[in-house]
Structure formats: structure tokens, C-alpha cells
Specification:
By secondary structure, the chain is mainly beta. The protein has a single domain, classed as Sandwich (Immunoglobulin-like), CATH 2.60.40.1120. It has 1 helix and 11 strands; from the N terminus they run H-E-E-E-E-E-E-E-E-E-E-E. The strands form 3 sheets. Strands 1, 2, 5, 10 and 11 form a 5-stranded mixed β-sheet that branches. The longest helix is centred in the first third of the chain and has 16 residues. It is elongated. The termini are far apart.
């Protein structure tokens, strides 16, 4: 009897824990004035669950696969891009400095979206984020 109760308890525990977080995929293109923007970090912060993110390729396309995506629901999406600049100091040493590469009214601005179950296509037109 004790063994049966133990097996039922372990089965319920296993089934409950195996549900995990149900993630969704997001993909799209980031453009500015109709032109694709490469090397933009696209970050997704859901109301619940883990954050997710991706980076645009040379054609402005980004993909956040389901295995790394957020949970469905209301999210905030933020974009950022930095340019690496070498800065020579007075002592002859060279430091690397990262400076924002998007217009200040776009860089790190949060915009709300609703993510549905399944595959989500969100094209980001940065000129509309101002």
C-alpha cells in the first residue's frame, strides 16, 4: 500500500514538473527608413517568464527560436545597437569604447506588443518608434 501511494505521488510530481515554460518563436526584420539594419539586438521582456533576444543579420532579419523564445502574452520589446570605437588615451594605450549607433529617441526605447502562441512575425520599423 505504501509503495502504491509513493508511486502515485512520484508520478504526479513528475507530470507537474514536466510541464515547464511554454515558449514561442519570434522573427522579423528591423528597418530604418525602409533600409535593413544589421547587428541590432532585439530584446523581449515578457510580463511572466524568462527574457529572450536575438540579433539581426546583414539583411536586418532576426530569429528568436521557440527553444529560446518568451512565453506568449504581453511583452516589451527593446532594440539597441552599439558601434565599437578605438580610443587612444594620452598615455598611448588604446581602449575600446562602445557608443550607441541608433538615434537617441530609438535606442533602448521599450515598445509593447502581444505575443501569441506559435510563430510570431514582428517587423520593427524603427522610424515608427520615435
Amino acid at each position: 500500500m505504501k509503495k502504491t501511494i509513493y508511486l502515485i505521488f512520484v508520478s504526479i510530481l513528475f507530470l507537474g514538473c514536466s510541464q515547464g515554460v511554454v515558449r514561442v518563436s519570434i522573427e522579423g526584420t528591423v528597418t530604418l527608413d525602409g533600409n535593413p539594419v544589421a547587428d541590432v539586438k532585439v530584446m523581449v521582456r515578457p510580463e511572466a517568464g524568462p527574457d529572450a533576444g536575438g540579433k539581426t543579420d546583414a539583411n536586418g532579419k532576426y530569429i528568436i527560436p521557440k527553444s529560446e523564445g518568451p512565453m506568449a502574452g504581453n511583452v516589451q520589446i527593446m532594440v539597441e545597437k552599439f558601434t565599437e570605437i578605438e580610443n587612444k588615451a594620452g598615455d598611448g594605450k588604446t581602449d575600446t569604447v562602445f557608443v550607441p549607433a541608433l538615434p537617441p529617441d530609438i535606442q533602448n526605447k521599450h515598445k509593447p506588443f502581444t505575443i501569441k502562441n506559435g510563430n510570431n512575425i514582428i517587423d520593427i520599423k524603427l522610424e515608427e518608434w520615435k
